Amino acid sequence: MEEQELILRCQQGDEAAFEALLHLYEKRVYTLCRRMCRTEEDAMEAAQDAFLAVWRGIGAYRADAAFSTWLYRLATNACLDLLRREKKRGGDVSLDDDETVPDRRDPAPLPDELAERAEEQRALREGVLALPADYRAVLLLRETEQLSYAEIAEATGLELGTVKSRISRARHLLRNYLTADGNFFAERASKVTECNRKEAGTHGT
Amino acid sequence: MEHETYWEQLSALLDGELNETDRAAVTAHLAQCADCQAYLAELTALRDAMGAWGDEDVPGGFAEGVMERVRREARPKRGQRRAWRGLAALAACAAVALLAIHSVPRMGGAATGGSAPAAAESRVADASVTAAAPAQTEPTEMTAETATEEEAPTPQADTTADWLETQMLFLTGGTEEPAAETAEETKLVSEDAYYGATPESANAAAERLADDDALTLAGEGAADWLAAHGEPTEDGRWRVSVEALDALPDTLTLTGIERPEDGAVLVALAETEATP
Q: Residue A186 sits in which domain range?
């Protein structure tokens, strides 16, 4: 069944259609939530909240925005709500927007390449989780969901200019965090620098 | 530092989100700036690494958990407009309900509509907000008689009931605008920003109050916010906790008055938001 038809049926209260829609999107929504939240339990709760919000709100859903964008909005909101609740309980520690970088745990690099890659991934995930939640959301929508700035603006309700600056700011904070971590940029960046230099030479002047 | 001015542009360049002019300017700078090249290299490394993340495995029981919660819910409904229930009933709500709302610590930053929702329009919210003001006395519920009474009220009301009567008659067009607020009333009136009052004439406010007394949420994303924070009710509205309303985003506007029950109020979606 087409997505549009599923949505129409959901709007008429068809639970089976909703379940089909749920299976269509559960991986994407859960993945986004898992990257927004520190624990699997929180991610599961936020993702379920997001789908419940879909069910509750689909009667008022307007097809002038892509369903996936609307869904990202609900998922992002569910995560931010959950993280706010966590923060009130003192459970969420994130980078302030003042470029301070928390002390790193000893990453204990291993010689094995696989282990290095795993360490790199761990550092990256930790860095993303350390971002302020609002920044983390826009960065994830951009980097892992590949949404355009306009789509992110639609999904978050932010102005286009704010999306642009938040993504930039999030990257900057993450870069600083990973620079302090010491294991991420050394090899990667030097390779890319060479490519960029060539590219800049092509595009420039 | 000079390079900092390019960071945001470099980030947007990486995303292909610069217009031709900006792109040309940034790439020209890049060609001669090693620091910015290094910076772009780092952003690119981040993008590549994050882009390579695979999807997460959805935990077992996830969909079942959602469906279980869904089955406990009523069917999704489109927003419905409630029938007018009478100004007298509204007045009763005004006297009692908003007292309760304002006993909840709020309401943080001022909210939509901002600083000076000039004038009488905010009487809609004022009637309720200021209802709490004069009083050591318990707010008195209004009866139909008091709400429709012809006699002109005294501008200087001595009790909450008198004051409310004045306000209500004013709203129904029975009198001129009530006397200026006391300092305490002015303070409370300023909280009508919470209700998102927007400038309009006193008559329009009165009509709106008579026609649509329910709390109504308007603004971009209002439907999503209600879906995320409210529980749908039989009549197409949403039951929302006062705590959730406390954190209402500035982009949304809440108008009307409603009696909180068990720490929650019923909120309707503005029709312009609900119609596909």
A: 113-203
Give contacts of A73 with chain B, Cβ < 8 Å: 221, 224
pLDDT along chain A (205 residues), means of 10: 90 93 96 95 96 92 86 95 82 48 47 76 92 95 95 94 96 92 66 52 40
Q: DSSP string spanning A83-150?
A: HHHHHHTT------TT---PPPP-----SSHHHHHHHHHHHHHHHHHHS-HHHHHHHHHHHTT---HH
Q: What are the tokens at B25? A: 């300017």
Does B86 touch chain A if contact means CB atoms closer than 8 Å? no
How confident is the model over B22-48, as pLDDT tens digits?
Answer: 999 999 999 999 999 999 999 999 999
Cα–Cα dist B21/A133, whole Å:
33
Note whether A80 and A129 are same-domain residues.
no
Chain B residues lying within 8 Å of A54, measured CB to CB = 227
- CB-nearest partner of B227 from A28, A57, A167: A57
ipTM confidence: 0.80
A120 and A157 part of one domain: yes
Shortest distance between the Cα of A2 and any Cα of chain B, in A, equals 19
Q: Are residues A198 and A151 in the same domain?
A: yes
